[in-house]
Design brief:
CATH architecture: Roll
Number of strands: 7
Largest sheet: 7 strands, antiparallel
Shape: globular
Strand order of the largest sheet: 2-1-5-6-7-4-3
CATH superfamily: Electron Transport, Fmn-binding Protein, Chain A
Distance between the termini: 21 Å
Strand content: over 45%
Oligomer: single chain
Order of helices and strands: HEEEEHEEHE
Low-confidence stretches: none
CATH topology: Pnp Oxidase, Chain A
Helix content: 10-25%
Mean pLDDT: 97
Structural class: alpha+beta
CATH class: Mainly Beta
Length: 125
């Protein structure tokens, strides 16, 4: 899936990224920063994970996540100041291989990389 240009523009600015996982016990939110997101050749989203232990456990039950990211500096719909995206996709963790090596080189503090294969992008504002 192609990454929307407006989504990539949002990620040029710092902001909070929320990753939502869930099980029958309810949702869980883990946060990171826009500047931490990277992409591989398949346009999968790569997120360095030092923590994310609850998310890792949740993904054993249900392997999809919702991710939100936004930036006030990017013009949204109807000339609204700021915009954001909700991304839905399949997710998993890797602790070796090319995705991990790429992220570990940039963020040596990580223990794994969270990979999200986007299935839907929705611009929210």
């Amino acid at each position: 899936m192609d990454l929307p240009a407006k989504f990539l523009e949002v990620l040029k600015y710092e902001g909070v990224v929320s990753v939502v996982t869930w099980t029958h016990e309810g949702p869980h939110i883990t946060n990171t920063w826009n500047s931490y997101l990277r992409f591989n050749d398949e346009n999968e989203i790569l997120i360095p994970a030092a923590g994310f232990t609850h998310a890792e456990s949740d993904l054993e039950t249900y392997d999809h996540v919702l991710l939100t990211a936004g930036a006030r500096q990017v013009m949204g719909h109807n000339n609204y100041q700021g915009t954001g995206f909700r991304v839905h996709g399949e997710a998993w963790f890797e602790d070796k291989g090319p995705n991990f090596e790429l992220m570990h080189d940039a963020y040596p503090f990580i223990r794994e990389v969270l990979i999200i294969k986007p299935e839907e992008f929705k611009q929210l504002l």
